[in-house]
What we know:
It is a single chain. 24% of the residues lie in helices and 34% in strands. By secondary structure, the chain is an alpha+beta fold. The chain has a six-stranded mixed beta sheet. Strand 11 (142-147) and strand 12 (152-160) form a beta hairpin.
Amino acid sequence: MSAAPAEQPLGDRPQIDEANRIMERLPGYRVEIIGGQIIVSPPADGAHARVLTELMLPFLTEGLHGEDAKVLQGIGLWLPDGREDYAIPDLSLVDADFEDRHIENNCYDPVVFRLVLEVTSSNYKTDLRTKVAAYANAKVPVYVIVDRRHGRLHVLTDPAQDEYATHRIHAPGDLVTLPESIGAKVTLDVAEILTAAGRKAE
Length: 202
């Protein structure tokens, strides 16, 4: 999603309070705290929403939304990077009992996340750089990025400190099978995904 840094809170006011105040003032915007910085993202465009729906289908077809796992949009992931850091991935695959691992501010322990997925918008660097480090530090096993700007799909696995040891980039025409560690064999058609994603974000 498109993102821009917001002003840091003044005085002793916790960042989460400031982030929640921004959300109240800007309904529909996504507010995250990553690396101690508040990130504010405007509502997504229609193509962004459409590709998320398309991406859910292969997971649902393989039975990953049932007794053992859930496929969810916009669920908070508590980050270990800072005292108040959290992210809200566009799409997540989590353990079905994720609600037992609630931390605070509608965010959950990263241990329940099997996969996170982001669809880029105007500030694609947030998804391609900032969130790579954040999700790797949180030890999320699989991070998928639909890169609308460059017309490709990234699959990152094997988190180690602030990076993923394995980073594969796929172009239209590729069929990508995600690691079976997520709970099933899910294959993504890169061309179909990028077509659903619509125009590239500039």
